[in-house]
Amino acid sequence: MSKYDCLKLENQLCFPLYACAKAVTRHYKPLLDEFDLTYTQYITMMVMWEKKSASVKEIGECLYLDSGTLTPLINKLESKGYIEKHRSDDDARGVVVTITEAGKKLRDKMVKVPNDMGGCVALSEEEAGELYTLLYKILNHFDEIDAL
Amino acid sequence: MSKYDCLKLENQLCFPLYACAKAVTRHYKPLLDEFDLTYTQYITMMVMWEKKSASVKEIGECLYLDSGTLTPLINKLESKGYIEKHRSDDDARGVVVTITEAGKKLRDKMVKVPNDMGGCVALSEEEAGELYTLLYKILNHFDEIDAL
DNA sequence: TTAAAATAAATTGCATACAATTTAATTGTA
DNA sequence: TACAATTAAATTGTATGCAATTTATTTTAA
To answer: Most CB atoms closer than 10 Å: which of A4, A15, A55, A128?
Structure first.
């Protein structure tokens, strides 16, 4: 029992969170390689599949990413043919990203991915639900703090 | 209810994990800036505070990082004066990293960090414990898979 | 109405991550 | 004992993340 115990790796909550997030994206890689997508590109496509059309800012709000990350990433998805970019008519500062037909087709090919990934995670339905709730509790609290 | 529901961002467990890990390290930043350390450098120092001396490989096993990440990071910590590197006597392939006096002193200055950070996280003791258990359950399972 | 403030993307710079390759050294084995 | 296989770091290359700055445009307010 020492005053330094709080600085031990094993007593951190942040560390398993950090390590686990990395492990998950690392285990997504072989599944996503088949589609020539990275994890970040994959979740960006999730936003596009749902919204069909969104500004860079909106995508960033969904994914907690800024334009510094999204601009090059969106350019790559455009070069792969899954989305298109054009200036907004209403507001020439904004860029509207739209899903293409190829992007919509990709969705059909990728429906199996979540199931394939689910097999990697060792949790029961119930545990997964608990984890989900706890993570969003933290995230929502950060959102509140940051909104101040 | 569509066959695409599994590809919705809100139905993913990976996404809040990914977003939460980023949010936590982002909120560490102002606390760590004071010590001119990044989050990864901070957890590397945690390993060094505990072990006093460790090879790059050992540090990597603790943190789930490889030499591609650690080599430049360790060089930075060395240039800050917190650790020292030298070739191993037993095995000239290996590098032994050792904590310096300045590195030990840093520990005293940083004992307050975990408490300061704890205030940011919205969870009760009990919830934090649950989260900790769930995260290590996933991590340990990945370790088992990867060991095959 | 027009200049200042605010906003959206893009750009720049730094620090990870990590796969893949390279280099140097050590082990295992025929 | 040579020599192939293995191992530990370092290096290289690609892709994030994110703070800070820049550019273009729009809002706000005097």
So the answer is: A15
- Give φ, ψ of B99 to 5 degrees: -80, 145
Position of tokens 């919204």? A51
Q: Under a CB-based contact definition with an 8 Å cutoff, are residues A103 and A45 in contact?
A: yes
Q: Residue A118: which residues within 8 A CB-CB, separation 6 or more?
A: none
d(CA B96, CA B54): 6
Instruction: Show Cβ contacts of residue B60 under 8 Å, excluding neighbours closer than 6 positions.
Output: B66, B67, B70
Residue-wise pLDDT for B51-87, tens only, equals: 999 999 999 999 999 999 999 999 999 999 999 999 9
CA distances (Å), origin B101, targets B49, B55, B83, B105, B107: 11, 18, 9, 6, 10
What residues 3-32 of chain B have any CB closer than 8 A to a CB of chain A?
A: 3-4, 6-9, 11-25, 27-28
B105–chain A Cβ distance below 8 A for any pair? no
Round to whole Å and give the CA distance between B7 and B100.
49
Interface test with A, best of B13, B29, B48 (most A CBs within 10 A): B13
Question: Burial code of A16-47, b = ≥16 C-beta within 10 A, e = fewer?
Answer: bbbbbbbbbbebbeebbeebebbbbbbbbbbb
Q: How far is CA A131 from the centre of its chain?
A: 17
List the single residue in A15, A20, A49 with the smallest CB-CB distance to B138.
Answer: A20
* Each residue's pLDDT tens digit, A57-104: 999 999 999 999 999 999 999 999 999 999 988 899 999 999 999 999
Q: How far apart are the two ends of chain A, measured CA to CA in Å? A: 38
Residue written as tokens 């101040």? Answer: A148
Distances (CA, A) of B51 to A84, B45, B84, B99: 52, 10, 13, 9
In DSSP terms, A85 is beta-bridged to A97
